[in-house]
Amino acid sequence: MVCAAVSVFVPAMGSGLPPGASLSAQTVYGRNMRAVEVQGAVLSGTAPSAAGHYSVLSGSTELWAGDAGQAFVVKVPRGCRKLYLVGSAGSAWPQLAWSEGEPERAEAAAAETTLDAAAYGMKADGSDAGAALRRVITEARALVSAGAGSVRIIIPQGIYHFYPSSAQQMSLYISNHDQQDFLPVGIPLVDVNNIVLDGQGSTFMFHGLMQPMLIMDSSHITCRNISIDYATPFYAEGKIVAIEDGKTTLEIPKRFSWCVEDGKFYTRGDGWKIRAATALGFHEDGRMVATGRAGDAPWGAEATQVAPDRVQFAQDARALGFDAGQILVLRIWNRPFPAMVLHQAENTTLENVLFHSSQGMALLAQMSRGVTIRGGGCVRGESRVHTAGADATHFSNCAGHISVQHALYEGMMDDAINVHSTCLSIQKVLSPTQLELRFMHPQAVGFDVFPVGSTLQFIKGKTLENHPSSGKAIAVERVDELTVRLTLDAPLPAGIGVGDAVENADFYPSVDFSHNIVRANRARGTLFTTPQPVVVEGNQFIGSSGSAILLAGDAQGWYESGRCRSVIIRNNLFEHNLICRYQFTEGIISIYPEVKEPAAQQERYHENILIENNTFITHRVPLIYAISADNIIFRNNKVTVDERYAPMHGGKPFILKHCGKFLSDYPRN
User: Fold this and answer.
1) Which end of the chain has the lower number of beta carbons within 10 A, N or C?
2) Contact at 8 Å (CB) between 536 and 558?
3) Longest dimension (CA), the chain
4) Rounded distance, CA 448 to CA 480, Å?
């Protein structure tokens, strides 16, 4: 879901402030982190009295650390616009004050500056590279503030290691993931502008449980020529070498770390050990095994280690649709950290950034504006079939334009791209102009979906109809992680009440997803839920286990909303998609909003969907499955049907339910 800042004003402190100084407004970023806008040269205060350890951070440096009740005085580093307050108890910081004067300034810089990370001690020798790279980022921030138009950080090609023990401890609510109290951030590109991080083909290797990269409160950041991987993947892959007497034996290469304890199979790494719960099958050539059922099979039977690299499970893989010689990915449902997070970032560019492994989604962008991806993608590491633990790219409540071109997405456990808004359920109508809203999904808590001034879109919960009247949020109160009180600029529209939902209409992005390859992944190829224009053009969708394209939306489950109003799907290749049943995978192109009462709708949810000049090579599955859609046009598409896989969903080319206008020239094309 969405992550943003919620304003919480601190009480007055008396007359001890110097003239012209003001008290700090704190904003909640995570369970244990708040931010303050820089208003002077020095920040002083006292850590909260609750037990715990506290720190004051710039975007890339720990400025002070201490315990409950300790006073501190922090000089603001050059170029900082925000400081971040981190506390293990998550308490408010009630005593903060700014001194007079301006923060320290750097000497004037050239219009363009290059910094060599090696000169700051960054080494590709297996040692921890995090502290050195953060020193470079700190210097780059200062140079930009001194007048450098941009700073290019170059990293000599090599393999660099990052460890959680020396990472920058931060706290942030992250959409669609398990919420963590703290994030050990390896590379914080935080509170910086106009920086290019050029890895020159380097691999960044991360250890243990940590947040590899965070781009936050920043603008015009470019990352290029970087590969992101984990020294120990968050899963294990094993080749089926025997299926006998109802038991399955896997051979697991040394690059994966695992153990068997008390008859249970665990994957493990630095600081973590988790019991594997599911298995996903791949052929040795990288194609997914077509089981026809949901992508993941339950895999929790008793395990016995029978050799240093072999484990036998009291489970018949053949009964689940697998066979000898295939590769099983043994994994879990946990999503502790994405590989890269964008939060309140503007105009971010990723050029040839490769994600080989992640502990959740590869890229998670939230409350951000303008993202460009060129090349790179989720690409398998050497002799591996699995990449991201969930979506390859996920855009939650973003704005501006999202452009993804010429990337490769393979082996991930969910969509190549997922774009959506977030709606909150109306729990109480406190007055005609005040609502109490609630986050309804456990992986969406604590976020400020509605900054003051937000445009509000009201949604009927059971029909998903968008009310024609919008509103404005003039006051927002964060009650707790789940609950928000919203004050409106006008009375609530008639017919909207408890059980309906509200979304932020200012965070709808347009999307261009073109000339990419999506292959051999679980779930869907792409997912779009935004009313701004979406163009899906010139892509290859090969062997995604579910639908190649899903237009979704709901106000009853994930609460991921944003009806589609203009979608163009053209010049794509769809080759043998929908080989396994999974969520909302009823057709190669699935238009599947979760409408509880479609017959009660006065208008359809999605509309204006043009599907033209595409090539479908498929077994007998629906080309289009649609619920609550209007003005679908299917024309000039080439369809070749074979019997490579078993038919699914009756094999009809089109299944339409509660839809309006539909035009098609198939099968005459």
Assistant:
1) C
2) no
3) 83
4) 11
